[in-house]
Amino acid sequence: MKIAILGGGSAYAPGLVAAFAERAAAFDGAELFLMDVAETELEIIERLARRLLEGTTLSVRASTDRVAALDGATHVLTTFREGGLDARERDETVPLAHGVVGQETIGPGGFFFATRTLPVIRAITEEMRTWAPEALLVNYANPTQIVAEAVTRHTDVPVVAICDQADDDRTHIAAALDLAPHEVELEAYGVNHATWSSHVRIQGDDGVARMIAEADQVAARDDVSNRTKRQFELTRRFGQVPNSYLQYTYYPEATLAEARAAKRTRAAVIREALPADYAHFREQADAPTPHLTRGRGGSVFGDFAVRVLEAFATGARARLILNVRNEGRVVPDLDADRIVEVPSVVEGGVVRPERQAPLPADRSGLIRMLGDYQVAAADAIWSDDRAAWPRALAANPLVGSLARADALLRDRAAAGP
Fold it and tell me: What residues form DSSP beta bridges with 190?
C-alpha cells in the first residue's frame, strides 16, 4: 500500500501523520509518500513524520517530485493550496469592493480558487493514468465540490471528495452548549458547505429542539462566534440544522460587513501563525517523545481523512459523510449526475450513498442553484473556456449578475496570481 499525500509539507500534514500513527494497524506496512513544492517545509514535516511513525510498520518518504509520489500509489490524497496564502488573501479582498463576501470556498473567492486548483488536479489525473492507474483519488483540496464535479465529469479517475465541516460544526455546537463534542451527533446532506441536517441528537435527545430552546442563551454569549449564533438562529427559523457556511447566503449583509470591518483577512491570520507552527514541528521532531500542540485543522482533519482512507484501503464497513455522485438520486432535489454530500456506507471499497428525504421548497431551490453553479464552474474552468467563466460565476447566488461577474474576474486578474 502506497499513499501519496500531495500537499505533504503543509501545516495540516502533522495531524494527518499522527492520525495514521494512531490507526497504524489498519495500514500495516504502508508507505506514506509526502510530496510538496515547498522544499523547506517538506523537510521539516518529513523529519517529524519519521518520529511520529516510530514503533509502527508504516514508512515515510518525501519529495518535491510529483511523479515519484504517484508512481505505484494505491491511494492519492490531494490536500494542497495552489497559489498559497497570498493568492487566498486576494481571493478574500477583491470581492469586498463589489459588495460580495470574500471566502475561499464559496462565492467568487471559491471560483477564483478553483481557477488555480483545477489545472493542477487535471495534471494529477493525467499523471495518475500512467503512474497510478488503479489508484483512488481522495480529494481534500478546495473548493472540494467543484474539484469532484470536474474529475467526475471529465475523467475516468475514481474519486471521492471529503470535507470535515460536519465534524467542525458539531464541535462548535457542542461548545456553545458547554458540552463535549461526543455529546452531539450531526449528519447532513446537500452539496458541500450547503447542507441541512438529517440526524441531530444532543445528549441522546432531539438536537433540533435543544438548539431551538437554547438559541436565545447562545445568542447572548460573548464567547460564541456570530457564525455559530447564526447556525442556532437558522435552526430556529427552519427547524433543521444548516451547515455553518450557509450564513453567507442567508446573512449576506452581515457577513459582508464583518469581512469589511475585520482588521486582517483569514489568510493574514494563518500566515502570521505559520512560523510558530513550523518552529513547533521542528522542536517536536527533535523531542524525546513528539507531542503535537499546534497545526492546521487539529485532529478533525487528520482523523477524518484517515478514517476515509482506512475504509477504502481495508474494505471494512464504515459510515462516512462523503461527496460522491448522486446515483439513484439519493438526494432527490438534485440531478443524478451532480456531486452530493451525503451519509454513505463504504464496504469492500464500494460507496453506497444513503437515500435522503426531499428538502422543503424554501431550501431545495438554493441547493439546486448551487449544484448547477458548481457544474458550470467545473466545466468552464476545466476546459479553460474564458468566455464561459463570467457566465458560470454569475450563476453563483452570491453574485447573480453578469456585469458583477465580469468586474470581479477583471479585478481579480489585475490583482495578481
Answer: 195, 341
Task: From 185, 175, 189, 227, select the one nearest 208 (Cα to Cα).
Answer: 185
Q: How far apart are CA 198 and CA 393, in angstroms?
A: 30
Q: What are the cell numbers at 339?
A: 456531486
Characterise 299 by phi-psi region: left (phi > 0), alpha (psi -120 to 50), beta (else): alpha
Q: pLDDT tens, 29-60?
A: 999 999 999 999 999 999 999 999 999 999 99
CA distances from 42 to 5, 39, 49, 285, 296 (A): 11, 5, 10, 13, 15
Global pTM reads 0.95
Other C-beta atoms closer than 10 Å to the C-beta of 314 total 17
Q: Say how many CA atoms lie within 13 Å of 82 toward its Cβ.
A: 21
**Sequence spans of domains, the chain:** 2-160
Angle between helices 402-415 and 107-131 (to 10 degrees): 70
Q: What is 2-160's CATH topology?
A: Rossmann fold (3.40.50)
| pLDDT confidence band for 300 (50 / 70 / 90) | low
Q: Considering only CA atoms, which of 215, 262, 264, 272 is closest in space to residue 238?
A: 215
Tell me the pLDDT tens digit for each residue of 338-389.
999 999 999 999 999 999 999 999 999 999 999 999 999 999 999 999 999 9
Which one-letter amino acid corresponds to residue 317?
R
Query: How many of the other CB atoms lie within 10 Å of CB of 406?
Result: 14
Total number of residues shown for the chain: 417
Please identify which residue in the block is written with the cell numbers 428525504: 357
